[in-house]
Amino acid sequence: MAHITALQGDITRCDVDAIVNAANEAMVGGGGVDGAIHRAAGPDLLRACRALPLVRPGVRCPTGSARITPGFGLPARHVIHTVGPVWRGGQSGEADLLAACYRSSLDLAAEHALTSLAFPAISCGVFGYPHAAAVAVAVAEVRAWRADMPMDVLFCCHDPALLALYRAALAA
Predict the structure, then answer these.
(1) What is the pLDDT of residue 104?
(2) How far is residue 137's CA from residue 93's CA, in Å, rounded to a whole number?
(3) Is the overall model pTM greater than 0.85, yes or no?
(4) 111, 92, 88, 128: which is closest to 18 by C-alpha?
(5) Residues labelled catalytic
(6) Which of 31, 33, 75, 126 is the 20 to 30 A CA-CA neighbour of 41?
(7) pLDDT at position 1, please?
């Protein structure tokens, strides 16, 4: 791992090889970071997402997996779409699924020879994952991930409270 940092900002403005989109399984845009990424990238992103094959009715990207598209109107060359788990109290495999989101995204980035990646706080919006628990999973998975090539990872936070959690986890 080359470098792991956290900053507060707008992920759609990150100048990295890829930004990660906290998507839904259908990959047709939505609210939160997903909607912001789709608006910033332009309509070609939705067309690219719809061109990806369905793995079952209504699902292009199952929870915990990742898919890649071009970045279109974004500074980032690519968007890696991953679907985090909906929080159901913590006893339904949520931590394993969230960890899989980070591993799948990093593996896909490495497969495409990307060297810089920005993550949002996956599942921390409408999916209701408790922020401290989600940050702990995110930082642990990024630190544990290994590949033949170094990768700079940025945790891009939309608010100061999340940024403080990431900075504390990265300092530990």
Answers:
(1) 97
(2) 13
(3) yes
(4) 111
(5) 34
(6) 126
(7) 54
pLDDT at 16 over 80: yes
Q: How many domains does the chain have?
A: 1
Q: How confident is the model at residue 147 (pLDDT cuts 50, 70, 90)?
A: low
Query: Which domain range does residue 134 map to?
Result: 3-171
Asked if 64 and 83 count as a contact pair (C-beta separation under 8 A), the reply is: yes
**151: domain CATH number?**
3.40.220.10
Predicted local confidence at residue 63, as pLDDT: 98
Contact criterion met (CB below 8 Å) for 83 and 34: no
Cα–Cα dist 95/153, whole Å: 20
Per-residue pLDDT tens over the stretch 47-104? 999 999 999 999 999 999 999 999 999 999 999 999 999 999 999 999 999 999 999 9
Average pLDDT of the segment spanning 119-129: 96
